Amino acid sequence: MCSIEKILVSIVLINILQLETYVCAKNNSKIIMYEAKENYKFLITGGYRPKIDNLAKYVVSIRGKKYKRFFGDDHNCGGSIISPKVILTAAHCVCMIASRIELRPSDLLVVAGTPRRLVVTEKTQVLKVDKVIRHIYYCPITIRNDIALLFLLKNIYEDGVSAQRISLQTNIFPPYTFCTLLGWGRIFTLGPTPDLILHADIYILPTEICKASYIHFGFGMMCARDETDFEKDSCTGDSGGPLICNGSLTGIVSFGFGCGVPYRVSYYTNVTSYLDWIRENGFGKLSSVNFISLILLQIFIIEGM
Ligand SMILES: *[C@@H]1O[C@H](CO)[C@@H](O)[C@H](O)[C@H]1NC(C)=O
Ligand SMILES: *[C@@H]1O[C@H](CO)[C@@H](O)[C@H](O)[C@H]1NC(C)=O
Ligand SMILES: *[C@@H]1O[C@H](CO)[C@@H](O)[C@H](O)[C@H]1NC(C)=O
Fold first, then answer.
1. Are the CB atoms for 71 and 57 separated by under 8 Å?
2. 210 Cα to the center of ligand 3, angstroms
3. Which first-to-last residue range defines the signal peptide (predicted)?
4. Using one digit for the tens of pLDDT, what is the confidence trace for 270-281?
């Protein structure tokens, strides 16, 4: 899965990776600095804001436990609400820099209910994390199995307008199906991060294209871009956030080589490949907890009688 002989090749790759947010990020390399000068373009990157945003309600901002100077300045990653208690995100969003060392639940906060990153609105919900489950075969070198779940201490209040769970993708799409990417990531390489969430419409590319530009491409990965408009792309801070196809959660922003760089695809975790993992580790664990509380409840009811 994550063998030592891959490390040398991978170090080179990791140096040019930059979709990581600062929790799992390497220090920005010179290559990126150079590219930033060459490609000073608006990237989620290339994003837009719809008049009526029907998708932002599914997305949360994952942050540190305490902001530095103002609310939201510690945004690290995006995530998706898959149940009132469970957030789906990328594994690299919940670990230390390029390692497998997991962050503690108390190091993380989830902010739901608002498309604004920096403003506390009446809909803003700030939620503590109770537990982190990262895929045990997540490999920080190949970035395989870049998937994790956050269990919240309290349920997200779902009103269907500002916060809502999203269904997981069970359909298989042909290549070149358009999907929507959402996030608060940088609007261009090393550029600022927006307050109001951005969208970009990109499409899933054929596997051969994904393989051609990443030697570790394998199970559970997919790649996406809009080959007619390379400015549309995910960037630092979009990690962990959703790629939504036909209304369901299909991809998790994972990594890429620069942002909005022509002829470079970006990589996503294929949610459909992990349906069993999500069910076992997410919903499975939840239902067993509920089952136990149900038994306890019954015991109490019987004792009370
Ligand atoms: C990145 O590296 C440079 C030079 O190696 C250093 O000056 C800078 O403080 C580092 N930045 C971070 C965020 O670690
Ligand atoms: C898109 O979603 C609709 C309703 O959720 C479903 O009926 C349809 O089959 C989906 N389309 C594809 C191509 O999966
Ligand atoms: C995503 O995973 C599913 C299930 O493993 C697979 O059938 C599908 O082809 C994958 N999608 C892409 C774009 O690779």
1. no
2. 12
3. 1-25
4. 999 999 999 999
